Predict the 3D structure of the following.
Amino acid sequence: MPRKRRVLSFPQKLPPCEGPKLNIFPYHKSRIQWLDRLDGDDDVTSSQGYVFRALIRGREYAVKVFFDPMSTEYFWGPLLGEDTSLDTAAYYTDPFFAECRAYGRIREATDGKILKSDVAVASHGFLFLEPKDQEALQKRNIDLGLDSVDIDYQKSTIGGLRARAIVKGVASSKSGITSTSMRKILGKVVSMNKAGIYNMDIRIDNFRDGRLVDFGSSWTEPHALLDSLSHEAATESKLADRVMFDQMIEDEELENGGEVKAIHHMQLRSQIKRH
């Protein structure tokens, strides 16, 4: 008798560790029609992955396809300990899991009326690409980095060699940040910080229509790296979004007149000392 093909089963929520989790995309088994790149020219390589416009069950989505994590022990080893498994470290340092955790917390906070739904471009869940989808992207010269994944990680991680993706809503190419909208947008950033989400990548290109679009660099509480830091270093990390927001306004030369300020230097010093 012919051997039955083994069907891989994936978890309904990720990551499998303490803290918020993102649900699997409801139509993760449906056919994906890959359209154009949304993150720049086809010749541009991202540090985290690629973003495509895609058609699934007749609806357009933005699908961010991630590189698989490689060993970055030089970064997390001193903080989490060299004996920490790559799986565990990835739950807190890998961009895919960072987005899962952030969007999981956003869902919790919006359900609890702590956050408004317009703080970020909507996420509809995660999925693992089928082999045919990986082949379709590779034919477009998209390197998913599957050949450079740590071999031990391949054997143990959820999904194995399957490329991972997060499905989001499609937004316009405009940041939505103007002199008149910056105060409201700053309020969104601060509200996310209060909910335990630290984006760590506040810049003009990370906003679409006044909403944050990428959380691949984010830290969401509870977070192992935050817990490993001193009180002073942890406080500085938690205030990073506000510092970057002020820098963004300055870099973009938006008319402000000093009225909108995410954090003042004296306020920064006092908050660090207080902790």
